[in-house]
Amino acid sequence: METSTAAMMMDHHHRAAPSLSAEEKRRIERVARCVARDRDGGDLTEKLLLRLLGLTRNARRWGFLAPDHQLHPYYLQQKVSERCRILRPRHAAATAADR
């Protein structure tokens, strides 16, 4: 994770989290899961999604992708959580094989 992203997450972590509807939560979690599973770390997918956001101007639905959006910290948290979840089984299997 880049230093600026980590710093941004820390900064937003101390702020009150905005309330999320169930639909917003599901949408953010799905996108975070998709981005986290990309081989390049999701950078290309995020750039594409941000470009589509700019073209469609549907900030109500996809605005959380923009770094200045109030739901962006939640999106980052979900993306990092999913990356960790993906990596954990490999680590556990490697540890078991070493025994």
Describe this protein with a few key phrases.
disordered N terminus, mainly alpha, RNA binding, 72% helix, Surp, Arc Repressor Mutant, subunit A, 99 residues
One letter per element, helices H and strands E, the order comes to HHHHH
Strand-residue proportion: under 5%
Tally of individual helices = 5
**Which fold name fills CATH's third level, the topology of the domain at 22-87?**
Arc Repressor Mutant, subunit A
The CATH architecture category of the domain at 22-87 equals Orthogonal Bundle
Extended strand count: 0
Q: State the name of the first-level CATH class of the domain at 22-87.
A: Mainly Alpha
Largest sheet: none
Rg calculated over all Cα atoms = 15 Å
Structural write-up:
The chain has 99 residues and is an all-alpha fold. The chain has a domain at 22-87: Orthogonal Bundle (Arc Repressor Mutant, subunit A), CATH 1.10.10. Helices cover 72% and strands 0% of the residues. The protein has five helices and no strands. It has helices at residues 3-13, 22-36, 43-56, 59-62, 72-98. Helix 2 crosses helix 5. This is SURP motif domain-containing protein. Residues 27-75 form the SURP motif domain. Residues 1-24 are annotated as: Disordered. It comes from Miscanthus lutarioriparius.
